[in-house]
Amino acid sequence: MLVDLITISDRVIDIAVREGPSAPAWRATFVYGEPRAEDRHLMWELMKRIKYRSDKAWVMMGDFNEAMWQFEHFSETRRSERQMEDFRDVLSMCDLHDLGFTWPALDIR
Question: Most CB atoms closer than 10 Å: which of 6, 7, 36, 87?
């Protein structure tokens, strides 16, 4: 497997991956989203720039520090509906799809 670093920053690692020398490249981007809600648009703009830099198959994973829907947000403080809608919009623009996540079963014996 061949891995080429494209970009690295405090919030993003973007790489190109080839299974072998003659295999087509694909991209993987690992993110840690902006912790402050008012700055999340910075990550979303970066996601759009990354998307439009390449036409390769792409997977993006990490912690976006945002929820798509209110029921995904486990806090007494409600999430801004507008903020979640903006997040869903950028996922759609980037043709990214939520594969889901399940917490591991906790054994508290």
Answer: 87
Element (H, E) at 93: helix 81-93
Residues of the chain short of pLDDT 50, as ranges, are none
The pLDDT of residue 105: 58
The count of structural domains within the chain is 1
Q: Residue 102: inside a domain, yes or no?
A: no
Residue 69's pLDDT is what? 87
3 near 33, Cβ under 8 Å?
Answer: no
How do 2-8 and 26-32 pair as beta strands? unpaired
Q: What 3 state SS string does 21-63 have?
A: CCCCCEEEEEEECCCCHHHHHHHHHHHHHHHHHCCCCEEEEEE
> Which residue range forms the structural domain that includes residue 81?
2-93
